Amino acid sequence: xxxxxxxxxxxxxxxxxxxxxxxxxxxxxxxxxxxxxxxxxxxxxxxxxxxxxxxxxxxxxxxxxxxxxxxxxxxxxxxxxxxxxxxxxxxxxxxxxxxxxxxxxxxxxxxxxxxxxxxxxxxxxxxxxxxxxxxxxxxxxxxxxxxxxxxxxxxxxxxxxxxxxxxxxxxxxxxxxxxxxxxxxxxxxxxxxxxxxxxxxxxxxxxxxxxxxxxxxxxxxxxxxxxxxxxxxxxxxxxxxxxxxxxxxxxxxxxxxxxxxxxxxxxxxxxxxxxxxxxxxxxxxxxxxxxxxxxxxxxxxxxxxxxxxxxxxxxxxxxxxxxxxxxxxxxxxxxxxxxxxxxxxxxxxxxxxxxxxxxxxxxxxxxxxxxxxxxxxxxxxxxxxxxxxxxxxxxxxxxxxxxxxxxxxxxxxxxxxxxxxxxxxxxxxxxxxxxxxxxxxxxxxxxxxxxxxxxxxxxxxxxx
Amino acid sequence: xxxxxxxxxxxxxxxxxxxxxxxxxxxxxxxxxxxxxxxxxxxxxxxxxxxxxxxxxxxxxxxxxxxxxxxxxxxxxxxxxxxxxxxxxxxxxxxxxxxxxxxxxxxxxxxxxxxxxxxxxxxxxxxxxxxxxxxxxxxxxxxxxxxxxxxxxxxxxxxxxxxxxxxxxxxxxxxxxxxxxxxxxxxxxxxxxxxxxxxxxxxxxxxxxxxxxxxxxxxxxxxxxxxxxxxxxxxxxxxxxxxxxxxxxxxxxxxxxxxxxxxxxxxxxxxxxxxxxxxxxxxxxxxxxxxxxxxxxxxxxxxxxxxxxxxxxxxxxxxxxxxxxxxxxxxxxxxxxxxxxxxxxxxxxxxxxxxxxxxxxxxxxxxxxxxxxxxxxxxxxxxxxxxxxxxxxxxxxxxxxxxxxxxxxxxxxxxxxxxxxxxxxxxxxxxxxxxxxxxxxxxxxxxxxxxxxxxxxxxxxxxxxxxxxxxxxxxxxxxxxxxxxxxxxxxxxxxxxxxxxxxxxxxxxxxxxxxxxxxxxxxxxxxxxxxxxxxxxxxxxxxxxxxxxxxxxxxxxxxxxxxxxxxxxxxxxxxxxxxxxxxxxxxxxxxxxxxxxxxxxxxxxxxxxxxxxxxxxxxxxxxxxxxxxxxx
Lengths: 464, 632
Fold this sequence. Notes:
Chain A has 19 helices and 2 strands.
């Protein structure tokens, strides 16, 4: 092995450094939030910051082991690992419930959450399964096979119940989409069962997953914004929320068209323009339809939907988490209140429950303001795009698929976690990767990352 | 099929979400400041400082309601270290058990919060916050405890202020304070749990004028939490401001004297300065020491006792008791008769006792002598002429017109409606009109003979003692009055605007002279019914009343004003179940007038007789001896 083939030379440093930066940011935020003047030392293991550092050390140790083992093992042992995690997911159902869910194995503060490791196991097995499909063809059998890998752990997780992890598992649908395993064969089978219809391909069927998610995303944002009015300081009138969504869509479309005009080939240009215009009309129609449709609902139906979305809540009533979280985020201003100066989201003040775990974005946004949050979002964007770039440069399909799994899982956690802090997603408890306090999530995300880095460092060794 | 292009779809999706989140965060954090305001609201960084309540002076500048400093023993749990419970319990004079229970009680009193997502229940109690361990300690109590507090870290003294009444008089009129209810907090954002609010009397009516302006300190509680610092260097802080003092028209000296005269009796005295409408004294007997209802501890101890006392010391009789006025009502009847022109000052009526009894041996040959002899048949005749003016042929229709006309006069005298003095809880009394009797007897089923007993202030007619005193003030002024009120000035401002408007009755000034002449004779001439109300070298004008009481002994009533020319005081005295008006009410009124105008009593025998009298079937005596400190 030549010197520049060593791990250090082959490691993807941009990704690794971003990962380390996030961990440092995370521990700094936990230290600020959970600070106990009686144990001011950041390494005091009685406090959450000390424990988080301990978890970090354990994770780095695990990472070292991952780096030492040949990456081939993950492909070979994907199925046994999957079965092992499944058995843990079954076992956890017999554990005493903590906070109403049987999600933890182990005693006291040293418990682990099998669902966290389920994400790695499913990623590995899904990568193995799709990469080994002999003919890359969309058949109902292939699609169902891949779906089964997801569905079994998802059902077990739903039994716990853990809505957050359940939702995160739908991120694998995007991976399937990237690999061409969409629901088109199923849709085609239904369509072609009508006599006289003979189709080979439906655009909606093959792009079913992103279309579905864009539709859901747009609907939720429209619903959330439909009840409010936005007051822009540079506009003399108030803009209704639904109108704001429509205007944003038009803006995005214009930007998209400009990009295509500038960079696209001639064929791409006409096709891209068609897609964007069509997409604008459809999405605009959807958000308009959802907005007006919602407003024409009966009050009790409206209440129901608003309740599910967390729109309807007495600011001081029982379900006040999100309102407090948004107050904390919004009060950060441009430059924030300064490190250690979060007033709404500190643990002691108790206004935002779980402010060191699921709501860690609150104290971060409150202390660092918009400048901090834009850095955080940029770091995530960079990490996600970097992982996709890494994925696309892999020779082995297994590596690529696994990398996509990691990207989509992280993306989901990012989108939902930040979303619930800014009122764009219902409150479901999932952590912000590398920031939130907690051993299981820290270890599982780190493992995921290290396996990816290891696979990538050996990408040239793998021939197929 | 090549799926490589799909990576752009996924990248675009990721960047779209990132872009939208950035826009949203920019809007939330930089443009929209509602969340900043919300954060200020929920972080409870405001610390409110409640100023002491405004003080109250009497008309001579005596401080009659002030504030006394009390102390709360506060505790902060995180600062308590190695508490020696036994020693602490001994220091505050509790048992160890009581101390332990108190800790538990404080924690429980704060309630809990249940997180709907995790199902976790957390207490609202916060170890880092200050909570009152013992409230309302006096200076003596705290001075015994405070020197030793340094041995008990985590416990502090904190100053609060509560009402103090240097004179034990006027409890029903001044009113008392108690803690705000949840509803009151919801209605008015000024109040926070634990604040006091005026619960009755002047304290309640002038709540907004007395409570002052709260000071607000903005404090930042950082994530380091123990460090509490002023927000923006105190730029937005406001200073607590005590309300301007109230000056009452009340003369505490005669208020206290009146309460002494009324000891062991049930009833009231109301005295008004006719020229201004200021209430000089308002005695409700029996009464209680206002200091009994100061602070939570006292209220919970004394209120139940006072509320269940059969003599009803909490009942503000001058405002809420509605009595038939008896013969004093004849004055108003005469005035209305004169104004309506149905009688002249020289009208005489025989003492024809076919309809109503009367005492023998007189012939009322004029309005003045009708008043002097308080001749019942005379006023039946007057009232008949007012009610039955033969405007309509039908006797019943005629009575309807007449009674409603009469009712309008009554309203102009402030009768049959609340006088709206500046004190909470006044009753309107009863002055019947046509609709009232229609309900009883049916339309056109009644005439004068049906309702005649109201001629002499019996039957359906009812007045509060405040209204009776106001009649005396109207006659003293010959036809007008200012709405009776307590507060002469608020800070440097005068009384409330509604008390600066002269109210005119529907009777012209010229008609008052014969009635006043009659009232002079009542007190000062042989055959008058209130000879006991005479004062040496002063002309008192008055009118007695003896209210028939089907439930027991008659009530004794007297209204008067003095001196006859340029009157300085108008007064009404009502003594329940004591007999003739001239026997008890009249001498009490004269003593009050003499005390107010001369500051001393010449006829000591008269005073002694009143002070020693025990009337009105008192249940246990509510006014204890120590309450009779006499201010001077």
